[in-house]
Amino acid sequence: MRKVLQSLHARLPDWVTDSLDTVVPVLEVLIISLAAWLVMRLARQLMRRASRTYGLPVSFATLFLRVAGVLVYGGALLWALERFGVSGAVLWSAFTGFATVAAVAFFAAWSVLSNLFCALLIYITRAFRVGDLVELLEPGGTPLVKGRVVDINLVYTTLRESGDASNGTSLQLPNSLFFQRTLRRWHGEAPEATGEADGG
């Protein structure tokens, strides 16, 4: 692009080249902005399709789109600033500083991010669904916890241990726990297990 501009500068009058120096960067920024908007539109469509296919919760789709928006629009902003002549060294320093802070935050929030990722895996692999009766087993087959799944969110899975919605006990287990233990899942009615889990 710069070679094309230099050749135009050599052929055009001064008053035209002065305008060209302003118009071209503006056009480039508009193209970058349009590209970022198209990428985010594509990401929204893909997330809608994935949500329909795998039954992903709305909260997960919203979180994914926010993270994607920060990355896409942040990258577009840095690219646009470079088009306006901001030093590459300044941009690189800003990027590395941001990446360092992000890495520290990532490791600080590793347990939460692990649960977010495991929530996604639960939905994609269909390990269990709301309403299923499940039991986690210790190594060797010793029962650890058992209950009926009443809710799956981005961090916890809630099991009803006994009773009903108004009276009884429930457990909130981190989603990552379901990938650290053996999972037993009952299919069908499982009358004996159901009575034990729901009735106390």
Automatic annotation (TrEMBL):
Topological category with respect to the lipid bilayer: Multi-pass membrane protein
Domain Mechanosensitive ion channel MscS as annotated: residue spans: 112-182
Major localisation: membrane
Segment forming the signal sequence: none
Superkingdom classification of source: Bacteria
Alphabetized SUPFAM superfamilies for the sequence: Sm-like ribonucleoproteins
Transmembrane segments: 22-42, 54-79, 91-124
Keywords, in A-Z order: Cell inner membrane, Cell membrane, Ion channel, Ion transport, Membrane, Transmembrane, Transmembrane helix, Transport
One Pfam short name: MS_channel_2nd
Cellular location(s): Cell inner membrane; Membrane
Functional note: Mechanosensitive channel that participates in the regulation of osmotic pressure changes within the cell, opening in response to stretch forces in the membrane lipid bilayer, without the need for other proteins. Contributes to normal resistance to hypoosmotic shock. Forms an ion channel of 1.0 nanosiemens conductance with a slight preference for anions.
Family: Belongs to the MscS (TC 1.A.23) family.
Subunit relationships: Homoheptamer.
Protein name: Small-conductance mechanosensitive channel
Organism this protein belongs to: Pelomonas parva
